[in-house]
Amino acid sequence: MCTAIRDDIVSGTFPPGSRLTEEVLARRYGVSRVPVREALRTLASEGFVTTRRHAGACVAEPTEQEAADLLEVRALLEPLGAARAAQRRTEAHLKVLRGLVRLGQERARGGRTGELRPLGDWFDETLAQASGSPSLAGLLTQLRLKIAWVYAAEPPARPVDTWEVLGALVDAVARGDAERARAIAAARADRSPGEFRLRRTVPAARVRNTGPAVRTVISGS
């Protein structure tokens, strides 16, 4: 239930600021109001939903600063996840990562750029799982979803180079070279902010203090 509502928020089916009533959601997903109520509580803790007295639940409206914070948090957490993956990955993780790099490089060289985004998401999810830390993997997954919600990712100018970098990252993880994996992940995160643009106009600031996106992400762990 929580996943279904979150996916509809991320996809824009429920735009920012729209009301989320238990009755309507229960009807939409064919469930009772109880799981909907629990899902809304979880999504509120993750920062996707806000609740207001007398107004009920609404889709959150992140500010420009909160949106920018998401990319900064990404730049901090992804290198940590890559370093942990180098220390804790399994052969099964490596098999999936290598297979994804091979597919990504083939698609990039063949000009099939429309197929690269799902492969990239799968790569990032697998790398997060390879960290061996459910908490860290959960944070990285939630962060990726929030970025997909707030930003439209521009395709990289040189997708072949992008997948070459991912191949080098997998090589470092396979060798157990945590510092090299961390450095590659950090450089990747540092280069890519220009590939993101806000999906919509968001408020420049809020009167009430909701705290930075770092707090929003961590609160969902």
Write out the strand line-up for the largest beta sheet, numbering strands in chain order.
Answer: 1-3-2
Beta-strand residue percentage: 5-15%
Structural class label? mainly alpha
Count of runs of 4 or more consecutive helical residues: 10
Helix content: 55-70%
What string gives the helices and strands in order?
A: HEHHEEHHHHEHHEH
Please give the largest β-sheet. Answer: 3 strands, antiparallel
**What integer is the average pLDDT?**
88
Radius of gyration equals: 19 Å
β-strand number: 5
The unreliable regions are 204-221
User: What is the general shape?
Assistant: elongated
End-to-end gap: 18 Å
Outline the structure in words:
By secondary structure, this protein is mainly alpha-helical. Helix content is 66%, strand content 7%. The chain is built from ten helices and five strands. The chain has helices spanning 2-11, 22-29, 33-46, 64-88, 91-109, 116-130, 134-150, 159-175, 178-191, 213-219, and strands at residues 19-20, 49-52, 56-59, 151-153, 196-198. The protein has a three-stranded antiparallel beta sheet with strand order 1-3-2. Strands 4-5 form a two-stranded antiparallel sheet. β2 and β3 (56-59) form a beta hairpin. α4 (64-88) packs antiparallel against α9. The radius of gyration is 19 Å and the shape is elongated. Mean pLDDT is 88; it is low at 204-221. Keywords: DNA-binding, Transcription, Transcription regulation. Residues 1-62 form the HTH gntR-type domain.
Task: Give the tags.
three-stranded antiparallel sheet; two-stranded antiparallel ribbon; mainly alpha; 221 residues; 10 helices; DNA-binding; disordered C terminus; transcription; elongated; DNA-binding transcription factor activity; transcription regulation
